[in-house]
Structure prediction request, 342 residues.
Amino acid sequence: MDKNALKATAKSMVAKGKGILAADESAGTSEKRFASVGVPCTEENRRQYRDLFLAAPGVGNYISGVILHEETILQKANDGTPFPELLQKEGIIPGIKVDKGTKDLGLHPGEKITEGLDGLRERLQEFYKLGARFAKWRAVITIGKNMPSAACIKANGHALARYAALCQECGLVPMVEPEVLIDGDHDLQTSYKVTLATQKVMFAEMKEQGIYMPGAILKASMVIAGKSAKKQTSPKDVAKWTIKCLKAAVPKDLAGVVFLSGGQTDEQSTANLDAMNKIGKTPWPLSFSYARALQSPALKIWGKDIAKNVPPARDAFLFRAKMNGLAAVGKYNEKMEAGRPY
Prediction:
């Protein structure tokens, strides 16, 4: 394990005013999103969709890294350049999603465990050769009646730690993502309690596995009430309780924290990130790793005419990337949304 290389990569991933684009949707997820705008989910259309974002002029001004899917890391941009090489030329770090998705957790109805550890070392070695310098593994924690169980939190925390150890052994920065789903009618305090427990268990498991924290990144859920809760959470309270959770659970020497949007609206996820950075005073940079919250406006525009609408779709994407870059340093203002090009 080259600690210096891991630390340098992780530091670059959370560079000031930049964040991570999560462009790692599976074919199944892509099919759902394409269907929403009437675009056939072919391999070529998926490649064109990736090119829309990865080859956008100036994308490196706001994006420090991109999480790729296995399909995408092997594909080429419209100009014939392999996507990892294209990103590297822009000063963007290529990453790769390596988990194999979630399955039902035995004896725990309604709960999930993420699979993909078998053969992971060899896959990571191959992805490193292809240009990847970080990886991502997502676990799913559901809040509901008698959920999550301690068994679910423990099993997923252990899997994340084992994945992280293999990543660092192979020279890749592990991005650990213990997502607490926003679905449901749970309140803010329940979200806090579950998110805190999940992060504490995961970091305890990572410590046991010997993870080098300055060479690792947390992709965190925001502490926020469920989408169906009677009382929704203001950006001020999201910021307050999320930072409180992080300070209680996250090692101070971790390289950084990036947030998932988790079903929030584009503007909501930006405003919540900005509120956190306006509070500041955290041991780690707080940035973003969004998929839909960066891509959604562009997808709607592109889907109307995938041949002609690339320029305006890219403008919409770059605007959202810029807004989140400002939020990552606490300089976003909702009035800025008046200037959006869509």
In short: Strands lie at 19-23, 63-68, 93-97, 102-104, 112-114, 134-141, 173-180, 217-220, 256-259, 286-290. The mean pLDDT is 97.
